[in-house]
Design brief:
458 residues, 4-stranded antiparallel sheet, 2 domains, alpha+beta, single chain, 4 strands, elongated
Length: 458
């Protein structure tokens, strides 16, 4: 009994000593906490930095998304309304920096078509991003968009308008941030200043030499002009006329064959759907031929005026080219204006036919709109050139198109409104039209007759 008591007491003593050795002292705990703090603080800063980086990345993603939306709308609007680039440069207020919420920016005035009647944009009903839009309003409230425009000329695209889009916002640190990237909008390409057949001056000069002086083989046109005391620019003016006239004549048969083939396909097509493709191809073929003829007139009327003012045989050298050769070359130019008139009228009437029933409903909507724009442009050109100068037809077409697109497609409606302003009268149309084309038609015939008379007089 006594032994058991002693054993038990010993065990208790050992147990007590063990309990006093288990655990940590206050000093140990303080040291451990200090070490833990040294490890936790950098870790917390790491998480905090990652959070700031994520927020900043999110803001830049929103800015890029807004830039993409505006850029896509500009590209679409530039296709739907050819006057967009003019409007962007004329309306300074359109490009000012404006908030993307509350309808302050023209690109964000209507976000969703969420009110009846659907498919029509109703002012005051189809709302922009407002406070009722939920969290997205708070997220976008500090974002603004704007742009600046500038002209550029690219070797492949031609004249373009570069729109420098800017997206600005205030980040979570209340610092100003900005994202700027360009959007390039091509302008409607006009006629090339120099026709393709004479763009290579070396090749063109050799053709001129063979045409006017076939006996001078082995010499360049510059050498021939020097040997004969001729004016090189005069030889080039006459020679370019020959090259362009012969070039048009050389492609006339191929053009007629293609026109005959397409006309046959249209008449033999069993359904309007099958006739649409060759019908539009026929219209484009006539349009392309008229464009080439107009390009020749745009390029040649100035040289013709120069010939009419100061032509003498001495300017083409002594001895001069064969008698009558220069007059014959100039006389052939009459075919150019005649071909322009015939093909312009044929192209316009074919496009009008395709835009009417039963073909119109078989053409996809976007292509149908492009056909309408072709009709407008060709009707304007006809009124300004070969006539008659009656704008009633084109105004009727534009008015119907404007009334159709109001409330449906703002770009198409703006296009029609813009064109109607130009077509109020023949004078307003002339003021809005490229002067080179109007001047070419008005001056080409007069200059040609005067040049032929001057050459015959010599």
């Amino acid at each position: 009994m006594v032994e058991q008591t002693l054993i038990s007491a010993g065990n208790e003593n050992r147990s007590g000593r063990r309990s006093r050795t288990i655990g940590f002292s206050v000093v140990e705990i303080v040291i451990a906490c200090a070490i833990l703090a040294l490890a936790i603080v950098p870790t917390l800063e790491l998480f905090s930095g990652a959070g700031r980086q994520a927020r900043q990345t999110s803001d830049y993603s929103i800015g890029l998304t807004l830039w993409t939306k505006v850029g896509q709308e500009l590209h679409l609007a530039n296709w739907e309304n050819p006057h967009l680039t003019e409007m962007l440069q004329a309306d300074v207020q359109m490009g000012r920096q404006a908030s993307v919420v509350d309808g302050k920016s023209p690109f964000f005035r209507t976000i969703e078509d969420d009110a009846l009647p659907y498919a029509e944009i109703q002012a005051g009903q189809d709302l922009p991003i407002t406070g009722k839009s939920g969290p997205i309003y708070d997220q976008l409230r500090s974002f603004t968009v704007g742009f600046r425009t500038a002209h550029r000329f690219l070797p492949t695209t031609g004249e373009v308008v570069e729109v420098d889009l800017s997206t600005d916002w205030i980040d979570f640190r209340t610092r100003s941030r900005s994202l700027e990237m360009p959007v390039v909008l091509p302008r409607i390409r006009g006629l090339h200043e120099i026709p393709e057949l004479i763009q290579d001056r070396v090749v063109a000069d050799e053709i001129v030499r063979r045409t006017l002086f076939p006996e001078e083989s082995g010499k360049t046109l510059t050498q021939v002009a020097s040997d004969r005391g001729a004016d090189l620019s005069t030889l080039r003016q006459i020679g370019d006329v020959a090259i362009l006239v012969n070039g048009l004549a050389g492609t006339w048969l191929a053009h007629q064959n293609t026109v005959s083939q397409l006309t046959s396909e249209v008449s033999s097509s069993p359904t309007p759907l099958e006739a649409v493709r060759p019908l539009l191809a026929l219209a484009r073929k006539h349009e392309a031929r008229a464009a080439v003829c107009l390009q020749v007139m745009v390029y040649l009327y100035v040289p013709l005026e120069d010939l009419a003012r100061s032509f003498t045989l001495s300017r083409v050298g002594l001895p001069p080219p064969k008698a009558g050769s220069i007059t014959g070359i100039l006389t052939k130019l009459r075919q150019v204006s005649q071909s322009f008139t015939v093909n312009l009228e044929a192209s316009l009437s074919t496009y009008v036919k395709a835009y009417g029933q039963p073909y119109s409903e078989k053409i996809p909507p976007r292509l149908r709109t492009r056909v309408l724009r072709k009709i407008v442009e060709l009707a304007k050109l006809k009124a300004l050139t070969c006539g008659p100068n009656d704008l009633t037809f084109v105004r009727t077409v534009l008015t119907e198109f404007r009334d159709l697109e109001l409330g449906r497609n703002a770009n198409f409606a703006e296009f029609a409104i813009h064109e109607l302003e130009h077509c109020q009268s023949l004078e307003s149309l002339k003021a809005s039209y490229p002067i080179s084309r109007v001047g070419a038609w008005q001056r080409f015939g007069v200059a040609l007759d005067a040049a032929i008379s001057e050459v015959n007089g010599e």
